[in-house]
Design goal:
The protein has two helices and 13 strands; from the N terminus they run E-E-E-E-H-E-E-E-E-E-E-E-E-E-H. With 186 residues, the protein is mainly beta. The protein has one domain: Sandwich (Jelly Rolls).
Length: 186
Amino acid sequence: MSRLTLTPLALAGLHLVQRQRLSDSRGDLSRIFCAHELAAAGWTQPIAQINHTRTARRGTVRGLHFQRAPHAEAKLVSCIRGEVWDVAIDLRQGSATFLRWHAQPLSADNGCALLIPKGFAHGFQALTDDAELLYCHSAAFAPQAEAGIHPQEPRLAIAWPLPVSDLSPRDASHAWLTDDFEGVHL
């Protein structure tokens, strides 16, 4: 019995994951991760790391983060409290959707997650105070492979739903894309 519904999105490899919620008088149960079911969407590695974030203030943007090869990672991003506007950007060199982005509302109520393949940058904006995310990563964090793009990069023209606020010093210092940026190798 499938507990996850996988819907391919417009950017190849990017999937919306809808969790089936089983409810009774005691409450709810939903599956966050299932290697067998996610394999159909390209998740083929074990979970290497699970991270949890809490974003205190509505409007805060985190990202746009990615890791370079050989530490590139797939991510399964779920919102477990509040609501966020989750963004994935295709950075894969040679991709037909290179530098295109997709945004998806994720919330504790809608039970959706975003399955982001290797070669994508990821970020989000909190739409509520105290938004919490749970990330499953296919590769452990490698500081030497860490990279990012400024969330207000004009070439991406991400239409953040709220004014961008509370960028961390690290995120605010992410580089703008140069004219010769050809993407990431996998």
